[in-house]
Automatic annotation (TrEMBL), chain A:
Binds 1 Fe(2+) ion per subunit. Fe cation binds at H114, H118, D308. This is tRNA N6-adenosine threonylcarbamoyltransferase. The keyword Repressor does not apply.
Automatic annotation (TrEMBL), chain B:
Residues 32-147 form the Gcp-like domain. Pfam families: TsaD. NCBIfam families: T6A_YeaZ. It comes from the Bacteria. This is tRNA (Adenosine(37)-N6)-threonylcarbamoyltransferase complex dimerization subunit type 1 TsaB. It comes from Streptomyces cirratus. Gene3D superfamilies: 3.30.420.40.
Amino acid sequence: MADEPLVLGIETSCDETGVGVVRGTTLLADAVASSVDEHARFGGVVPEVASRAHLEAMVPTIDRALKEAGVSARDLDGIAVTAGPGLAGALLVGVSAAKAYAYALGKPLYGVNHLASHICVDQLEHGPLPEPTMALLVSGGHSSLLLAPDITADVRPLGATIDDAAGEAFDKIARVLQLGFPGGPVIDRLAREGDPKAINFPRGLTGPRDAAYDFSFSGLKTAVARWIEAKRKAGEEVPVRDVAASFQEAVVDVLTRKAIRACKDEGVDHLMIGGGVAANSRLRALAQERCDDAGIILRVPRPKLCTDNGAMVAALGAEMVKRNRPASDWDLSADSSLPVTDPHVPGTGGGHGHGHGHTHDHDHVHELSKDNLYS
Amino acid sequence: MLLLAVDTATPAVTVALHDGESVLAESNQVDARRHGELLLPSVDKVLAEAGVKLEAVTGIVVGVGPGPYTGLRVGLVTASTFAAVLGVPVHGLCTLDGLAYAAGAAGIEGPFTVATDARRKEVYWARYEDPRTRVGEPAVDRPADIAEQVAGLPAVGQGALLYPDVFTDARPPEHQSAAALAALAAERIAAGLEFLPPTPLYLRRPDAQVPKNYKVVTPK
Ligand SMILES: [Zn+2]
């Protein structure tokens, strides 16, 4: 197979319809249509609104990506798509489109994992991933520490949030402060003018007996809300910038502390940070500082590649093609709870002609996710 | 003319290939939870059975609903994507019109009702003057609320079977067939009639509520 495969990737796991095109580890196009504005008045992503928007945006976004990349669909070596995890109905639009696209073009189809894609996207920014890579993934949907000896075949979860995702905490605090949705960018902006040491908010799960790599942001969220309410009750003005800075500091302090510890414990000298929260300027700065102190090389892609996008899916798809991983079958499912340990969903080879029998048993996962496939 | 027709707006996952005169091959499965998994293999099977490559298709026909959204979108995005790659037109038809056309082939002539399951104790429905003539736009309603409007009429579709108190004269077909949809499309193309765009007839808004604002800020 081609050393630098040309792959188109489709991502529809949440509210962004993303289509990217890459050649090997080179980014050629990254087209995104977002429905975030439609969700803003609901204060969070509404799955049905997202699914409707994906359907409308799908074909135009594919066309835009190909045009931007300046390549012909006929020259593609494969089509990759997020098979999960994510919102079931939203995933299904992308998976169905990818299948139809691959089938009509006679190209192999690769159903890939959304989380592994968030890690692999850094190849487009900083070249091939070191093996192993430690990855901290933080967004509105996930907060995980993952060790990836081989991004196409071996991804190990070390820890994850036990309640809210980091991005969710930003959204909720923004709501308490009446700053709108999504909360990440506005809190980041206000925090720059505030004092991160003004209020000492709790650092969740950092006690000596707590799980070393798990996260918890629910207690922090409640503590911040209580603090604000107390101020309001006392008739005092809420120092929004200081609250934003102190809250943000509590989040990024825990995230970076645990990520560095995982690197040290596992003897890994590279840390990759991805997901929408990786766009946070304080997270990037503190991670850099702490990595420098620990002799760890930090890799964070540019903000546009950190949020959900099609290029990350294409990046992982290209790696699948390059390493001769088996393609997926035409009956590929959208799997809302695809485990992080499955970087992709290989086919059994039946009727597709690309696989070679390497398969995992996914049935147990499907049973869990089928119930919410229909609205 | 070589039409590939798909419809996933109802529990049926149905695919057919039609050459303008007759159905060359078809696949019909009923599984409300697996539209996403079943559709592409069905297309592959139908094309293989007819010994035709997808590139030979001159138009895509798709049922645009109404239907439960998640399944409905599978057929629509598949049809649109095929059409975009092949550079052929995609012809949208109301799913209920396909059932009405099939009802005609099964022998119904006069006024009748088509009803499919809309879940939440509702049906998607429309009245027909004859198998090719719908009266008004399709709607979604509780069966009891439309009892008067459909009283005494034969009714086809799974919705009729689910609510026998309202639809007292249920007749076949129960399920949508892409073969009927394709035959109807072939007829309409030959007659130079218009089609619907390949966009879904949802008939309902997304369930979403604007959250109440957090406590009002106290200072002036
Ligand atoms: Zn993500």
